[in-house]
Specification:
The structure is a single chain. This protein is mainly α. It is built from nine helices and no strands.
């Protein structure tokens, strides 16, 4: 090496998306991809918050970060090692990925059960099938991510189960505090805080809203009908102008 070349610097791997798996196993490969879910959910939260301006998505995102901070605190209090110290840094109890997905599933389960109402298909059996498939998908997704941490040897089974359970409880308590109590009892302290959060000048400037306070489906159906009405009007106007031009 010449004297003009810089000295070799130490290098480190970015663990954020660094996952080791058995490349001869298709299941291992699939689970390695699924285990990245918590990382991918963050930009999804950001996109939904900015695009819809719904308070719910900001609350859910904030709760997810609080749950992650709680996991960090638990790990440093309990200080239990991972089953394989060569995989990942930090302590292993409870599994942060499992806790993340437990919170995610719990929050969505409660929201779709207590506040959100889909527009009926007109057939009760189809409505039931849609709801069952939705809940099954959420649970299967969350469980698969949690299982991936055990299968890939990043955590022991107790670390995964405790993490998932803590996430479920955290999500339920958090949803009760930020959604259930404020919307069922608007005159409570939490209800008045929610009202202030939605009506302050900064929230008004950001166009923050609670669509579920007005529409059972947060306004999806009403907005679609408004779009269709305006779209049909514009098409009709275009046809009339075309006919006049001829």
């Amino acid at each position: 090496m010449s004297s003009d070349e810089p000295a070799a610097a130490s290098r480190a791997a970015l663990d954020l998306t660094y996952v080791l798996y058995n490349d001869s196993s298709l299941l291992s490969h699939v689970l390695a991809l699924l285990t990245l879910t918590p990382i991918l959910l963050n930009p999804a939260y950001a996109a939904l918050s900015v695009w819809t301006r719904e308070l719910l998505f900001l609350e859910m995102w904030a709760g997810q970060m609080l749950c992650e901070c709680f996991n960090y605190a638990l790990k440093h209090v309990i200080q239990e090692e991972r089953p394989n110290v060569d995989l990942g840094d930090g302590y292993g109890f409870p599994s942060s990925h499992s806790q993340w997905m437990g919170y995610f599933a719990s929050f969505l389960f409660l929201h779709f059960s207590l506040r959100h109402r889909f527009v009926s298909t007109g057939f009760r059996i189809l409505d039931y099938a849609r709801d069952i498939l939705l809940f099954a998908f959420i649970f299967s997704w969350a469980a698969a991510v949690a299982f991936s941490r055990y299968y890939l040897s990043y955590h022991s089974l107790p670390q995964v189960l405790w993490g998932f359970g803590i996430g479920v409880v955290f999500g339920a308590v958090y949803y009760t505090a930020v959604e259930y109590i404020p919307t069922r009892n608007p005159n409570s302290l939490l209800g008045r805080f929610r009202t202030a959060l939605l009506t302050n000048p900064l929230s008004t400037w950001f166009r923050l809203r609670d669509g579920w306070a007005v529409w059972a489906d947060s306004g999806t159906e009403a907005q679609w009908f408004r779009w269709r009405e305006e779209w049909d009007r514009q098409r009709l106007d275009a046809k009339k102008m075309g006919a006049k031009a001829q």
